[in-house]
Write a structure and sequence with these properties.
Keywords: Cell membrane, Membrane, Transmembrane, Transmembrane helix. The structure is a single chain. Helix 4 (about 70-90) packs across helix 13 (about 275-290), helix 6 packs across helix 15 (about 320-355) and helix 10 packs antiparallel against helix 11. This protein has helices at about 5-35, 40, 50-60, 70-90, 95-130, 135-145, 150-160, 160-190, 195-205, 210-215, 220-235, 240-260, 275-290, 295-315, 320-355. The protein has a domain at about 95-310 and about 325-355. By secondary structure, it is mostly helical. It is globular, with a radius of gyration of 21 Å. The termini are far apart.
């Protein structure tokens, strides 16, 4: 039985278009990385991921009509499948040895901040601000765990729309950048009565992005920066259990909804375990065992940053500003309240942790 020439030709066009779309996103991401390296932008602690989603959104809402329609498959691949692979390899930036350096105080700080911020952010977003479930969870995840990278990981698990991720990333950018300037000022003004360990715990436990943590803590000292970075990476490590729990919760919600719709209480839907979270954990273990030479790890991390930038750029291209505008003010208000919580609640948690482990 022979295949239809028309179908074969159509498949070839689709495949070729997807490849062109991926290549287009890759070239866009390369330009974004060069732009993010400019002193004026790098000095603000703005990562290529952030520049990517902004640049992608500007293109997607102005010039996208000029992009061939069959390239959309490649853009979608970059925003979905490539994203999952990149999040998994993000684990090579974390090692169990580093996490052990801050011990129980660092782990306790991270767990308390992540859990409280996720719970507060989700409840606040859905109940008080009347945001939809996905937008509320994405906002909470960006503030609680590791900024834009967490938003990307949660977006992949929730399978939410790109504009919801864009709203959450916007909140992360605004308040994370503010932290870089506000936290050192608060420390110098004497509003933060903490020793070097305490400063490291507070900065690493409450600032959104890794680059923002380094930028803020470097204004205090080298030791505080070292501690803050490790605490921050401990929060990143918590991405795995949180995503697994999210998968369980989503499966139960779907089963409950299906049961309610059909009048039954049992459904057949399986728990969706995000494989990239397990991949992330595997990469952490590889990094902890020092299987790869340092140069190889650096090279993979550079490629991973490029892949994450591609994913964020593609997400920006698929974002519709009109949709962002609908949830924008309420999502931003949620992000602000969470930011106030991270400062006030974070200080209280840091004092408590230091007191308990003194």
């Amino acid at each position: 039985m022979s295949h239809s020439p028309t179908l074969s030709h159509s498949s070839s066009i689709t495949s070729h278009g997807q490849l062109n779309g991926i290549l287009f996103v890759a070239l866009f991401a390369a330009a974004v990385i060069r732009l993010a390296a400019l002193p004026a932008i790098a000095g603000l602690g703005v990562s290529p991921l952030i520049v990517g989603i902004v640049g992608g959104a500007l293109y997607g809402n102005t010039l996208r009509a000029g992009m061939p329609a069959h390239w959309a498959a490649g853009v979608n691949f970059s925003a979905r499948k490539l994203l999952r692979i990149a999040v998994a390899f993000f684990g090579l930036r974390v090692s169990l040895q580093e996490i052990a350096q801050v011990g129980l105080p660092g782990l306790t700080e991270s767990v308390l901040i992540v859990v409280s911020t996720l719970v507060l952010g989700t409840w606040l977003g859905m109940k008080l601000m009347k945001l939809d479930r996905d937008t509320a969870i994405l906002n909470a995840a960006g503030s609680a765990i590791c900024g834009a990278a967490a938003v990307l990981a949660f977006e992949s698990t929730l399978q939410s729309k790109p504009e919801k991720s864009a709203v959450a990333v916007g909140s992360v950018v605004l308040f994370g950048t503010l932290s870089m300037f506000l936290y050192p000022l608060m420390y110098r003004a004497g509003w933060i009565h903490l020793d070097t360990l305490g400063v490291g715990l507070f900065f690493g436990g409450t600032i959104h992005e890794v680059a923002q943590v380094v930028g803020a803590a470097s204004n205090v000292g080298a030791e505080a920066t070292h501690i803050a970075t490790i605490v921050k990476m401990t929060r990143v490590m918590l991405l795995v259990p949180v995503l697994l729990l999210l998968g369980v919760w989503l499966a139960r919600s779907a089963r409950r909804d299906a049961g309610g719709a059909s009048g039954q209480t049992h459904g057949s839907r399986k728990i969706a375990v995000p494989w990239f979270a397990l991949g992330f954990l595997a990469c952490v273990l590889v990094n902890s065992l020092h299987v790869l030479p340092a140069l190889a790890t650096q090279a993979v991390n550079a490629l991973d940053t490029f892949a994450l930038t591609m994913a964020m750029t593609a997400l920006g291209i698929e974002t519709h500003i009109s949709q962002v505008r609908k949830a924008g003010p309420r999502a931003l208000a949620t992000g602000f309240i969470l930011y106030v919580w991270l400062i006030a609640g974070g200080l209280a948690i840091t004092w408590g942790v230091q007191h308990v482990f003194a």
